[in-house]
Predict the structure.
Amino acid sequence: MTIVTFDHVVKRFRQKQGELSRVVTALDGVSIKIPEGDVLGVLGPSGCGKTTFLRMVAGLDTPDSGQILFDNVDLNTIPTRERGVGMVFQEGALMPHWEGWRTVGFFLSLRKRQEEVPERVRRVAEITGIGLEKLLDRKPSQLSGGERQRVGIARALARDPRVFLFDEPFSSLDAKIRAQARVELKRLLYEFPVTSIYVTHDQVEAVALAQHIAVMRAGKIEQIGTYQQLYNSPVNLFVAGFIGTPLINEFQGRVADGHWYGKNFGGYPIRHDLPAEAEVTMGIRPEYIHVADEGVPAIVDQVTPFFAERFQLVDVHQNKEKWAFKVALDEQIPVGSTVHCILDPEGLLFFDTKTGQRIG
Ligand code: ATP
């Protein structure tokens, strides 16, 4: 298994816009060490550099500056054929450094000598249940979308890659097949651990598959951690807002006498070193807001049941502020009624409004 290191990697692209051209920084000094056997999920909004990050690991693009290492060896010095990178994209498997004929050739040669098929290849076929026939066959065009992805993954794994890259591999599959494919991939990576990077828009998928998650924005990695770390201790407002559904509530406010005050809520102790009147945004997730007999009154705008997760989400407003909180499914909360809300101090997160950085 391989340790992948990015050391201050920068990648820029020149984009033409009619007569003009502009430079886009796709990776803006990315540094990360992916431990061997780790499955790293990469999350971030469209255009933040996720695919560029993957393409760099695959050696499909080279950095403008900075270094990428496999173990302690500069990726540039490893001949492309020896990099052993397996890739599965939305549209199917691709192994850039094992040209098509070699990949198919590998499986075709196995097909001719089926009794010599390595145990690893047999086992991958067994776990995926796709059968040796399909794994060794050369005609992916006859497969369904779901099968094609599974065959692609199985083939890449059967080749014993050093690093495995996934770019939204299941995004074109329907929900049921997608969930199955996810479980299968998890079992495969458990049995055949490979250092993997998994790019997705889908937090549920990232949580299901990845051991660690990197959140990217505008070519930078904002935070790396387990999902719980990102959820409970976001380093800034961007990560707090990006991770977690339903969304975190944000309240604008100011500091006075060592306490935070907003439009509706206030009086919560905050770090002492902040100047009076400092602008601070308070974040609190919907499960930390409770209905009580007394508290801040709010008018109910909408109640949405989430049956599988066993809660209802209640959207409310007051004084031109909106927030949402969770209640049990059997709680009766009519739209238009007034509820009283209190905040659980355990769930309070404070951010510098100007920089977005977490300050408490
Ligand atoms: P998405 O989630 O939409 O796939 P992404 O996070 O994968 O986006 P990238 O595809 O890595 O983002 O792109 C990052 C930035 O670099 C974008 O602004 C994109 O337009 C630009 N970019 C990427 N590849 C090229 C290229 N070959 N030429 C010019 N610009 C590019």
